Amino acid sequence: MVTTPRPALAALAALAGLLLLASPASASPRAGDDDDGYRYDPYGPPPAVEAAAPFSRAWGLSAYYSRWAGGYDAGGVGFRIRWEPLELLGIEVFAELLDVTVPTGSRVNLPSGFNLYVPLELLDGFRVRALAGLCTMFTFDSAGSSGGPDTQDVQLGVHVGLGAELALTDQLSLFLDATYQGYWGHGRELGAWTATLEDELRRQDSVQVGLGLQFHL
């Protein structure tokens, strides 16, 4: 009878164990914790990562269509930069280029200023805001005839309003603002042959609506 030495049996058992550990089934690591403390399966789908909402980003850039009615009947485009240092406080600066409707000649308005606003998220991805601010408006009048004189004026204004904003993606939102605009400036007369600027200051009351897209940084 031939007997196998015990060391040989131990070596064979160790070799079998190594082969078993080297097999693909045994080499699969256990599900464990990743660096963020989430349970994961290395051979399953990657763990879902919750995307940050656009309203959680402090900075934003936007472009919008601006429509005025009342003291000024005008339409144009606007741009603004937004910063939200606090959850319930935002600051933005803006500038617009407006083509004003006049019977004769042409008028271009360039309002610019700043807003302070309080955003309130009512639903996930939807919020409203109250806003108020100060602004200046550069106005340029040209008479109907090519040889007529031109006039320029600088007006000062205040505005208050409400807005709504809807998140579209992680970094993009759609917004709609409606504001009352009150501007103080010189009275003007614009005709076919001449444009004149009066000495008396007058107030122009208008309603402005802005619709645009905001890119959150």
Structure, described:
This protein has one domain: Porin. It has 2 helices and 10 strands, in the order H-H-E-E-E-E-E-E-E-E-E-E. The longest helix is centred in the first third of the chain and has 17 residues. It is elongated. It starts with 5 loop residues before the first helix and ends with a strand. The relative contact order is 0.17. About 11% of the residues have low confidence.
Strand order in space, largest sheet:
3-4-5-6-7-8-9-10
Structural class designation: mainly beta
| Total domain count | 1
Can you tell me the CATH architecture? Beta Barrel
Question: What fraction strand?
Answer: over 45%
Mean pLDDT: 80
Might you state the CATH topology name? Porin
Overall form: elongated
Tell how many strands the DSSP assignment holds: 10
Q: What helical percentage do the residues reach?
A: under 10%
Number of helical segments with 4 or more residues: 2
The helix-strand sequence is HHEEEEEEEEEE
Classified by CATH, the class is Mainly Beta
Poorly predicted residue ranges: 7-12, 18-34
The radius of gyration is: 33 Å
Largest sheet: 8 strands, antiparallel, barrel
Q: How far do the termini sit from each other?
A: 83 Å
Keywords for this structure?
217 residues, mainly beta, 2 helices, eight-stranded antiparallel β-barrel, elongated, two-stranded antiparallel sheet, Porin, 10 strands
